[in-house]
Amino acid sequence: MYRKMSDEVVKELTGIVGEDHVILDKEKMVDYSHDEFSLDWVGHFPEAVVKPKNAIEISQILKLAHKEKFAVTPRGGGTGLVGGCVPIFGGIVLSLERMNRVLEIDKKNLMATVEAGVILMDFYEKVESSGLFFPPHPGDETAYIGGAIATNAGGARAVKYGVMRDFVKGLEVVLPNGEILDLGGKLMKNCTGYSLLHLMIGSEGTLGVITKAAILLMPPLENVITLVIPYGSLYDAIKTVPEIILNGIRPTSVEFIQSDAIPLSEEMLGKKWPCKEGRAFLMIIVDGPTEDEVYRLSETIANICTSNNAKDVLVAENREKQADILAIRSNVYEGLKPNTIEILDLTVPPSEIVNHVDRVCEVSREYDVWLPTYGHAADGNVHTHIMKLKKEGEGFKELKEKEWKEKYPIIRKLLHEDCIKRGGVISGEHCIGVLKKEYIPMALSNAHLEILRRIKRAFDPNNILNPGKIFDL
Ligand SMILES: Cc1cc2nc3c(=O)[nH]c(=O)nc-3n(C[C@H](O)[C@H](O)[C@H](O)COP(=O)(O)OP(=O)(O)OC[C@H]3O[C@@H](n4cnc5c(N)ncnc54)[C@H](O)[C@@H]3O)c2cc1C
Q1: Which of 83, 136, 227, 236 meets the CB 3.0–4.6 Å disulfide criterion with 284?
Q2: What pTM did the predictor assign?
């Protein structure tokens, strides 16, 4: 389907970006053959890795790919969890790593202008040192801005402040035929034709290569408190959340987590979660304009939690304690990772979280596989890990390879079906990539999918840009 790249094509690529910025050695391409998702069968080597330094070089590369019909897979930090940046048809990986400049922090307009290869960690630092704040926070800070835009990343603060889509106001994009488009700008309103800007956000590198972005910033959060609330059951924990929101409180974040997922993270970090009792926890972060207001909100939340059978309400006021709690929660993924087959990203209407998690527990018992579950309780985004382990007494036992390979597809199908039945979607923030493609027909109608296919063909008639992702043409 795609032509193998000839020596002449490689020579042309080298001519565009320079010899030092093309990798052909297989050993050096290992890091570019997979993303954070661990299953071996999703990995695939490119024929070359190419590292351009600006939109003009990318335009030349895409013109060549369009003409010679080789696949181009854009890559950011490679922290994706669905194989989105894996070059499943070979061709080239287009790494944005050299395009890593924060070009401007414009305080008057509260906008940053950044290249797509800026690492989130560096961006947070730069924004903070300018006295401003950027709310979206996907759990892995080594992701790039371009990757976060291409996946419309969310994170724990989405409940109050929104996701990447709410902060991206302008984009420079290179289309698959090499044309360079400027979309939007430092604008708070824009009703000028169909929004190609919003089409690009979350398009997983299938419609264009994002090269530059105008990103909205905010004044910093001044007064912040973190609450950790233990419960005897996950059911009680989750059913508290709608009541908090109904009381007119919108916390910065509301995370739920089962207690058995915490020790691995504690052990890894050498830090202690603030309470021992409880089978499930809510971690609620509250911010507000004054200290008094934050205390008032926290007190109301504490009362609601207690009336919903919370065992206690622990308050972390200082930054160090807050950071420890956040670090343990953020590293739950890392703690579970060595024995994780897949982390799901199902999202249901918030009122359905309880029922969906009930179903997860039922499936876990029925198939005797440990399915630790946590997530963003106020926005319905549930992360269940399908593990290679089962529970045994107080500990865990490894499943034989044959056993987990048999159970894994059944479990994931049952959980996806449950999510759809409850009015949910198969991804709230990790996207579809290659991993979840098989469930797209379950999630979208034929008419919906056909429109997506036509959009893809309109942008990319030769299907060279990140082919084989989201859906098959
Ligand atoms: C520990 C951990 C925690 C995470 N927590 C969260 C979370 O809370 N919320 C969340 O939303 N995600 C989360 N993720 C998933 C991941 O971090 C995000 O999807 C992230 O935004 C991906 O960015 P990246 O730069 O690593 O992209 P990559 O993995 O490199 O690529 C992801 C997709 O974007 C495309 N792409 C990358 N750069 C560009 C570009 N410049 N132009 C066009 N397309 C491009 C790729 O082709 C691919 O399809 C987590 C991942 C890990 C490992």
Answers
A1: 227
A2: 0.96
